[in-house]
Amino acid sequence: MEERVITISRARSAIEFPANFMLVAAMNPCPCGYYNHPQVDCQCQPGTVQKYINKISGPLFDRIDIHVEVIPVPYRELADARPSERSEKVRERVILARQVQEKRFEGIRGVHCNAQMSARLLRKVCQLDDTCQTILKTAMERLGLSARAFDRILKVSRTIADLDSSLTIHPEHLSEAINYRSLDRDNWGR
User: Total structural domains in the chain?
Assistant: First the structure.
């Protein structure tokens, strides 16, 4: 997944095929579907939620950049007539962010966006000030995040900063990226 290739090896040769893809997945929070539901109690036995989430292999789960818990939206919020950001505006911000990333990685073979950065390139592009370093260190320790999660958080925070037209990663960008790791194993289902 990380090298974006599939290698098929046989007795006398090996062939590589490109395998660049975006994985988007959804699952219930637990077998009954009501874990952390704001109005309905979960019917699962103690330990069942953790057992359920453990069905996804740790290394695979760790390679997913963004984990978001989606809870039901109340009717009053769905019916709210206040204007929200229009899709056209969001699209413009995404296009601008992708252009910034293409320019950033110009001349670097195989890298077109933040998600494709190597660890070495990541350290160069995602430099953090002291405040951000402290926030990330605290999150890593409290949430028990892996080194792979550390890299994912940096890539996502750089993308959030790009969407915000920011040249540097600010604490709010980093905090948002950390919040997108809310379903990591050490934190979820306890």
Answer: 1
CB half-sphere exposure, 177, CA atoms < 13 A:
29
Evaluate whether residue 12 is within a structural domain.
yes
* Phi and psi based region of residue 130 (left: phi greater than 0; alpha: psi -120 to 50; beta: remaining): alpha
- Domain holding 127, by residue range, is 5-72+85-179
Instruction: With respect to residue 52, please indicate whether it lies within any of the assigned structural domains.
Output: yes
**Structure tokens belonging to residue 117:** 């950065």
pLDDT tens-digit map of 168-181: 999 999 999 999 98
The model's pLDDT over 114-141, given as tens digits with 9 standing for 90+, comes to 999 998 999 999 999 999 999 999 999 9
Any idea of the CA torsion for 154, 157, 163, 165, to the nearest 10 degrees? -80
The alpha carbon of 67 is separated from its chain's Cα centroid by a whole number of angstroms, namely: 6
